[in-house]
Amino acid sequence: MTITTLSSRELNQDVSRAKKAARLGPVFITDRGKPAHVLLSFEDYQRLTQQRRNIADALAMPDAAEIEFEPPRLTIETQAVDLS
User: Fold this and answer.
1) Over the stretch 25-55, which tens digit does the pLDDT of each residue have?
2) Positive/negative CA dihedral, 21, 56, 64, 73
3) End-to-end alpha carbon distance in the chain
4) Checking DSSP bridges between strand 4-7 and strand 27-31, what pairing results, if any?
5) 77 vs 70, 74, 80, 84, CA distance in Å?
6) DSSP state string for 35-75
7) Which of 66, 72, 75, 80 sits at a 20 to 30 Å CA gap from 40?
8) 3 state DSSP class of 53
């Protein structure tokens, strides 16, 4: 799977490039450098919405090794308790 990133301006200037790239994998579209939208082929959209409903199912897929998943690190802070 190939991931492509295009700015909104690049998308507007060359929609056919984005559509061709979507055949190979998701196309991230950015606004001011931040991801704002994702363009998928219709087949990929159907696969995502009809077959896999949660992260456990997605990670059980044969191509799960290609999934980029880096959840943010959780920091748990303790607080003193007043038992008086």
Assistant:
1) 999 999 999 999 999 998 888 888 775 557 7
2) positive
3) 60
4) parallel
5) 21, 10, 10, 22
6) EEEEE--HHHHHHHHHT--SHHHHHTSTTGGG----PPPP-
7) 72
8) coil
41-69 per-residue burial string, b: 16 or more CB within 10 A, e: under 16: beebeeeeeeeeeeeeeeeeeeeeeeeee
Which amino acid makes up residue 78? T
Residue with tokens 């087949």: 43
- pTM for this prediction: 0.57
Structure tokens at 80: 């003193």
Residue type, 75: T
> Given the structure tokens 């450098």, which residue do they identify?
33
